[in-house]
Predict the 3D structure of the following.
Amino acid sequence: MGPLLLGLAGLISARRTQKQETPGHSPWSSKLTLLSALLYTLAFNLIFFVQEIFLVLPKAFLPGVRPTLFHNNHVWEGEHPLTRLFQGTGALATFLIGMACLLLLRRGAGRSVSIRLFLIWVAYCGLFMALPQVVIGALNPGNDVGMAMDYFQLSATAKTAAALLALITMPILALSLVRPLLTLADHQDAISSAGARTRYVFQVATLPALIGIALILPFRIPRELIEVVLLPVLVTVIGVAWIQAGAWRVRSAQANGSTSDLRVIVPMVAAALLLLIFQFVLRPGIGFF
């Protein structure tokens, strides 16, 4: 409810601000929305692949353990005391990648809108594919991170503390991506008022991420419907709600993007090739033994 209430406050503030300010309005760019949706799709699936790789590779070095990587999961045969620990390495890897991309954004990496937007989505997916697992793991010992917690024999209090820390961290990290998103605008009028900022973030982040959910589903089938749909919905909604809710408040962002040379063909081809790899190479399973 928190992000929804903040979003409502943002819309109310935007309406009030519009009565006081009359900045120029930025035209809606459907190309930018489509580009963002494709980059979100690529980022999500690449981060998911990284997560599974870092779940499989550590197990591959354990004697008697034979892991297999699929396009939407991994399994293993054999047992070793460290397998439960290594169920947490996937979330750790995606979190570190997310933090690295966030650091690159703060240092001004990426000259083009496409590169910066891709870094934003990689940072987002890395962070929000990892942190919710901490919360779920504190409640469910069968979850990947929950298994790692049990390996360390964490008490119920320690698990609760970890879950609370993750819950506190998620909105902070989501809101830290608002300014990088706003700086993608090609002129200051597009983000000069609360209403303009709310509209721009919806155009460049919220709507593309929602479209991205539908684009991600073919990468995850065949599998149980809840497994196909739940992860992309969870990852998307948890963080994007906070980003949208906080867009109107960021007044100091400086527009320095250029949307005149946007190209959607490259991410479109990349997404198609990645889908083919997922379905024809990874789907049958690759054994790491």
Remarks:
- The CA atoms of residues 24 and 189 lie 5 Å apart.
- The radius of gyration is 20 Å.
